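DEPOSITED CHAIN:
***
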Amino acid sequence: MSELPRKAVVRTARLATLPLGFGARAAIGIGRRVGGAPADAVTAKLQEQTAASLFKVLGELKGGAMKFGQSLSIFEAALPEEVAAPYRAMLTKLQDSAPAMPKETVHKVLREQLGARWRSRFTSFEEEPVASASIGQVHRAIWKDGREVAVKIQYPGAAEALMSDLKQLSRVMRLSTNWVPGLDVVPILDEMKARMSEEVDYRLEAVMQGQFADAYADSEHFALPSVVHVTDQVLVTEWVEGEPLSRIIKDGTPEQRDLAARRYLEFLLGGPETAGLLHADPHPGNFRLLSDGRLGVLDFGAVNRLPDGLPPTLGALASLALDGDAEGLLDELRESGFVKSSIDIDADRLLDYLSVFIEPLRHEEFTFSRDWLRSVFNYINDPRSAQFTVGLRLNLPPEFVLIHRTWLGGIAVLSQIEGTVPARQIFSDTVPGATFGELS
């Protein structure tokens, strides 16, 4: 394969296997129920088979298909363990690996972007990529000035493939959104489509990365690599050596988990205040725990510009919920656009609904876990409960879409890391509008 399979008819045909597969498995499931199989067992089997099919197709296609798969993969912590366990390795692979480009294609891109004598820019260049993902792959090299660097090379046809995939996935997933209970993939797709032109713009990414790197240049807790060189399809940055979060999630020590989770949450919440930017691609493949305890941060293609920091509304809402002020919480939600003026909603039920989300802020330290995240998903998505109808009445203002997606993804990753962190203090220190302090 010399480049992404980018012909629309080829990619569409592969993506079209998803709803066909869903339909076939659903029909088999109905047959099993008629035959007397328990409903829970049939549902679990359908989810297991659908997950395997979905991630196989998305991983092979790269482009927007794989980017979407990466977005979904961080939510594996919310899946029932019997469903998630067989595919945890597959989901992790989607985060930072995929079939690599042939060497000839790599060399062709480098010649076009860096010139015929592109090798003269490097003291050494490793032919095998260290990571292959949705839009490009990364090679390790030594720049001509002696610096160890990461060379990110964009797949030929990446931009076209991204948009083609997202159009098709929008159709597919609108028909098949129940493979993960409680996860509404449509807003994720819509938000991704709106920002996809930025994802493939390496020059813009270099600007965002430079702003982040400058802001954290003197940090004792974070390592953000500087940009060395950039063209339209090649981005060269300083190398960051460390333990990927995916490995810590798999078999990290308790000490590694606690430190990684703490630094991860501090960066997720503190980035807007420190750099005026929100790193909006929170999956584990973008983070490394360094030997000196710092958190290395990679990939700045998805960034939300927040020059004034996070909206104070977020801190105010958390404070009101912690205080148990149901009426004040409803008023704040209406004023900020989360509850439309035409919607009638019970303030106490609303407080109950949101309370589950702020449970980590009720304690000096909190252990994020898969069990906890699954309990949250089950609580808010049980159609028999009052909380389910409350959730249907809430609105997400456009200016909060990317923040919401990033925080939701971040919480999912924290639940995979399973570390214990002082979440209340971190939130209070970094989120404007938070008026609570230490517990008495």
About this structure: The two ends are 62 Å apart (CA to CA).
